[in-house]
């Protein structure tokens, strides 16, 4: 038997970061949105544990571990599974791009494992397993548009009346999330304990108006990411000059995302940026969280 689960990339429409806690994590007040770039994770019964990773042409999977350190494999351990599996990951989400690709794989593996073995675990059990795997993993299960607090793992769906069109420009070399957080600490030695709240952003989401949302987008990790990679600042200026309502670094970067006024508007920005950047994608949000796309008998079971 095998089960395939699809999980989406995330962007942060608001990312308020506070001073580091005693455990080293930063308190967050964030608004996540799932957008239409997906990883598919297939978990199959097997004689021995194994993992394979493939990517869409625009995704460089060279940096994705293929051993037990891969977060999808760790997800199966978190699920306390005794049996052996083959895990197959098909990646469309940029690697180390600030779009929670690894978290999507972990969430998808948790759900695929649950469905493969017909466990029917309650949402709160899966969400607790997800939180132990990483701060963004619970959101990858939930999807849509949601507020994240704590270190990002406490997720609560919020009202979002829009259909938002994004242009996504991944970087060729990833950025390390811990490095960007460390740089935030260097730039903000006196950061308040309480992260900035997303009041205006929540109001904008409830109107569905792109111009209003564009004004309310906020990311406290943008300055540190640009300080580490000045070319990201140039990319944001360029995308806005080409007609995007607003550009921003996605999460800890280095992927940049651009909010556009419509699907047609996003296609124009894709065309303009494609002249200078190798990979320019278009995506829409919000989309669903991790969901089963197929459950199959293995070939030898079908005979
Ligand atoms: O939770 P996750 O494994 O995704 O976090 C990766 C790293 O990002 C952490 O080890 C930490 O350095 C940093 N981080 C943080 N505060 C958060 C989330 C992540 O400092 N709220």
Question: What's the gist of this structure?
Answer:
This protein has 303 residues and is α+β, with helices and mostly antiparallel strands.
Explain this structure to me?
Helices cover 34% and strands 28% of the residues. It contains 11 helices and 12 strands. It has helices at 71-78, 101-116, 123-133, 137-142, 177-187, 199-207, 210-216, 222-228, 231-241, 263-274, 299-302; strands at 2-17, 28-45, 50-55, 85-91, 145-149, 154-157, 164-169, 218-219, 246-249, 256-260, 281-285, 291-296. Helix 1 crosses helix 3 and helix 5 (177-187) crosses helix 8 (222-228). The radius of gyration is 19 Å and the shape is globular. The model has no long low-confidence stretch (mean pLDDT 95). Cytidine-5'-monophosphate binds at residues 25-26, 28, 134-136, 151-152, 177-178, 181. The site of cytidine-5'-monophosphate has 11 residues, from helix 5.
């Amino acid at each position: 038997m095998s089960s395939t689960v699809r999980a989406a990339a995330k962007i942060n429409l608001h990312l308020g970061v506070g001073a580091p806690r005693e455990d080293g994590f930063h308190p967050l007040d964030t608004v996540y949105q799932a957008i239409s770039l997906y990883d598919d994770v297939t978990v199959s019964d097997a004689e021995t544990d194994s993992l394979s990773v493939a990517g869409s042409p625009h995704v460089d999977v060279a940096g994705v571990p293929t051993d037990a350190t891969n977060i999808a494999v760790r997800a199966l351990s978190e699920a306390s599974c005794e049996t052996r599996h083959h895990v197959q990951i098909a990646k469309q989400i940029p690697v180390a791009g600030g779009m929670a690709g690894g978290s999507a794989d972990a969430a998808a593996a948790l759900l695929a494992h649950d469905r493969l073995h017909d466990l029917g675990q309650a949402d709160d059990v899966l969400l607790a397993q997800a939180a132990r795997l990483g701060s963004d993993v619970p959101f990858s299960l939930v999807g849509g548009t949601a507020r994240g607090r704590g270190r990002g793992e406490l997720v609560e769906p919020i009202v979002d009346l829009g259909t938002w069109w994004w242009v996504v420009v991944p970087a060729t070399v990833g950025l390390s999330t811990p490095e960007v957080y460390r740089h935030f600490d260097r730039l903000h030695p006196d950061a308040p304990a309480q992260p900035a709240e997303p009041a205006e952003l929540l109001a904008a989401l409830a109107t569905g108006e792109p111009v209003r949302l564009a004004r309310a987008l906020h990311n406290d990790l943008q300055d540190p990411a640009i300080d580490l990679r000045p070319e990201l600042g140039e990319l944001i200026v360029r995308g806005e000059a080409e007609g995007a309502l607003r550009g921003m670094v996605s999460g800890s970067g280095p992927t940049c995302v651009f909010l556009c006024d419509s699907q047609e508007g996003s296609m124009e920005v894709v065309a303009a940026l494609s002249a200078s950047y190798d990979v320019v994608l278009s995506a829409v949000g919000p989309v669903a969280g991790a969901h089963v796309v197929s459950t199959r008998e293995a070939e030898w079971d079908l005979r």
